[in-house]
Amino acid sequence: xxxxxxxxxxxxxxxxxxxxxxxxxxxxxxxxxxxxxxxxxxxxxxxxxxxxxxxxxxxxxxxxxxxxxxxxxxxxxxxxxxxxxxxxxxxxxxxxxxxxxxxxxxxxxxxxxxxxxxxxxxxxxxxxxxxxxxxxxxxxxxxxxxxxxxxxxxxxxxxxxxxxxxxxxxxxxxxxxxxxxxxxxxxxxxxxxxxxxxxxxxxxxxxxxxxxxxxxxxxxxxxxxxxxxxxxxxxxxxxxxxxxxxxxxxxxxxxxxxxxxxxxxxxxxxxxxxxxxxxxxxxxxxxxxxxxxxxxxxxxxxxxxxxxxxxxxxxxxxxxxxxxxxxxxxxxxxxxxxxxxxxxxxxxxxxxxxxxxxxxxxxxxxxxxxxxxxxxxxxxxxxxxxxxxxxxxxxxxxxxxxxxxxxxxxxxx
Length: 413
Ligand SMILES: Cc1cc2nc3c(=O)[nH]c(=O)nc-3n(C[C@H](O)[C@H](O)[C@H](O)COP(=O)(O)OP(=O)(O)OC[C@H]3O[C@@H](n4cnc5c(N)ncnc54)[C@H](O)[C@@H]3O)c2cc1C
What we know:
By secondary structure, the chain is α/β, with parallel strands linked by helices. It has helices at 13-24, 54-60, 64-70, 105-114, 158-163, 184-187, 189-195, 231-234, 242-252, 258-265, 297-300, 309-329, 334-368, 373-388, 394-412; strands at residues 6-9, 30-32, 46-48, 78-81, 87-91, 102-104, 121-122, 127-131, 135-138, 142-143, 148-151, 170-181, 199-204, 207-213, 219-226, 273-279, 292-294.
């Protein structure tokens, strides 16, 4: 039995990791990616990879040594603070190999792309739609004859529309601007010290300013706030003009700490990326469609506030690859392949639901809570803890978290 003909749509984390696993088992595939080239520079901030999902995938994909060349194990300093920069929580840096190492998105992308066989990615192929019989309609060409197409092309997946046209991402109510302070140690030394090689998140009701150290010495700065979905058309400034954007944000954070205002003042003019954040409905699932599936954001697009997206995408890629490799190695035919894909999807649905629920709750708590944000912090921490614990332990986690927060806020802060 010759191996199935496999098309992966999207050369992001999910698509490249899947390709990497297939290539390690000599299973041929083609990745179709809409971008014209790898474009490492535009890849944005930093990611922390987690034990059991992101890190496990990197190890099993035999990319651990490459990962270690770029990972920052001293990047786990983490401060959650109010708008006066008074910490709610500050942890690390731990410098422990067992923690959650950070890596720049750009470096992660480079590692993944360079790990693939030459020519595996067909750049400049934007999928417009899929027609019956797995016919792939790209902007400039049509490809067909694939036994399996795997949508890894993010939240606006066309393969998802082929499997089930009814489901669309929903606006979370939160928009954001991605900015950058180049060479922060020189251009913003105080901020550089405050960020302490890690991440600082300042939160007020409905607003959040993030500062994160990147491996190239710059600070990633993100300004997220609740906005109407059409804010980029209706706002009183040009959301792509950095000077106008800085002025608008500074007006919004007039009463924030001078250091946080400095984070906006010192941003360079090379990145000014406005975006809305969307998510797929929590717990949605689809009827299996023979010969097609989706993973990563295509299956479970989430807001970034629980930091699980890339980790979940890697986990999907690893598990889907295991299913495909198992069938191919045992000489199974397309029927067996289809059953294996269906079994993979059934395993993914409850797994992705946990992340989606966690993310939705955290997003609501941070951006849509009223009252004192100090009371919101333990609720967020509890939501994260619950996502990692079996339901039977949730009451215990509730008691532990609230007791801890009571003692911390009354006696330790
Ligand atoms: C602001 C922000 C911060 C985030 N921070 C974190 C974090 O700290 N930790 C974390 O784990 N996750 C984070 N995430 C989420 C994470 O980025 C995603 O979950 C992850 O990138 C999903 O990978 P993916 O491969 O499924 O999709 P994507 O990363 O979206 O990759 C999809 C790929 O498909 C290509 N593509 C798109 N459309 C087409 C098409 N029609 N035809 C062909 N190719 C196409 C794209 O160019 C891209 O290369 C964040 C997300 C955002 C927006």
